[in-house]
Design a protein that fits this description.
Bound molecules: zinc ion
Helix content: 10-25%
Strand content: 15-25%
Number of helices: 10
Number of strands: 14
Structural class: alpha+beta
Order of helices and strands: EEEHHHHEEEEEHEEEHHEEEHHH
Radius of gyration: 22 Å
Distance between the termini: 20 Å
Shape: globular
Oligomer: single chain
Number of domains: 1
Length: 328
């Protein structure tokens, strides 16, 4: 894992429950609970754990990677530990590796979200309600019909009840360290789908629960060290780089960062000091940043017919499909 911090992006993530949602307490199941309750923290406050949000982000990004790569497994299945299968988890595939090489050989999704050999680049805080708190005991309750696990039909007599919440907005803080530009492109697809309410959260997706609208606000980019982004204060334009272009040590080869050209972005404010540069963006500028690199780095085939840049790099990591890699 890269110890030095080269760049960082932080932002606020809003999750608006546009329909009924239920983030379950513990792992209660329909058949063993008479009332499924919303999760609360140690102070009995309703919240969405950051780990749950990260889980949703991760699995949706896996889905995006699979869709874009036209069936070629660019993303591993983190739960698959069966050797010689195409989507063997990177955790299993790389468990015997020296940690310095793990990043290079991890699939694109593990590069961002981590696996058992390396930490995640993304940190997501717990999310709390920002538009009027509500006590868990005051949440409305619905009756559900149990689904028979063998026939798939409703099982006679199996009834359960569940709490739900709607019209509330949760807020979480997001931090991503040492990002590569293609990763912002991947998140661009994720944020687009969140905005269009395509990504369900929590319990009961097949029962029509879980509809949310996710939006990001106020991304702030920080670049550390002497390699300042080039900034034009008159036109409010900056040229930013991913961690691959900022990392200069001889160890760089180990990480196999993508070779990425800098990207020019518009900004709202920028400030420079000897040790860091901070750039803040408004909503439109953020959207343009996140969507800018996506087509180049993710499309299987570009407009001119050549394979997309990141596709090739990811393919290299995936050449070891199914194979447990040991250090030479
Ligand atoms: Zn992986």
């Amino acid at each position: 894992m890269l110890k030095k911090i080269l760049n960082e992006i932080s932002m606020t993530f809003h999750i608006e429950a546009t329909g009924p949602i239920l983030i379950k307490e513990g792992d209660t199941k329909e058949e063993d609970s008479s009332l499924m309750r919303f999760v609360v923290d140690a102070n009995q406050k309703i919240f969405i754990p950051g780990s749950s949000i990260r889980g949703v982000w991760r699995s949706w990004c896996e889905k995006i990677a699979r869709t874009i790569s036209n069936g070629v497994p660019l993303a591993c299945d983190p739960f698959n530990n069966i050797l010689d299968t195409e989507n063997l988890s990177c955790s299993k595939r790389l468990e015997k590796m020296d940690t310095s090489n793990v990043y290079a050989l991890s699939c694109p999704i593990c590069k961002l979200f981590g696996n058992t050999s390396q930490g995640s680049r993304i940190r997501i805080s717990d999310a709390y309600i920002v538009n009027g708190d509500i006590a868990r005991d005051n949440l409305p309750v619905r009756d559900g019909i149990g689904i028979d696990r063998f026939t798939g039909g409703s099982s006679s007599g199996a009834k359960f009840r569940y709490q739900y919440l709607s019209d509330k907005t949760f807020e979480a803080e997001i931090h991503i360290r040492n990002f590569e530009l293609w990763q912002l492109g991947l998140l661009g697809y994720l944020f687009r789908d969140f905005r269009e309410e395509l990504i369900p959260v929590g319990f009961g997706k097949t029962r029509g629960l879980g509809k949310v609208k996710g939006t990001i606000e106020g991304p702030k980019l920080t670049f550390y060290g002497l390699q300042h982004p080039r900034i034009n204060s008159t036109d409010k334009k900056a040229e930013i780089k991913g961690s691959g272009s900022l990392y200069t040590d001889v160890d760089k080869g180990h990480y196999c960062f993508a070779t990425e050209a800098p990207v020019e972005i518009d900004f709202k404010t920028a400030s420079n000091s000897a040790i860091k540069t901070i750039i803040e963006l408004d909503g439109d500028q953020a959207e343009s940043l996140f969507m800018k690199k996506s087509p180049d780095y993710w499309a299987n085939v570009k407009d001119d017919g050549t394979p997309g840049g990141y596709y090739l790099i990811a393919q290299e990591a995936r050449n070891h499909i199914g194979e447990v890699i040991e250090d030479a």
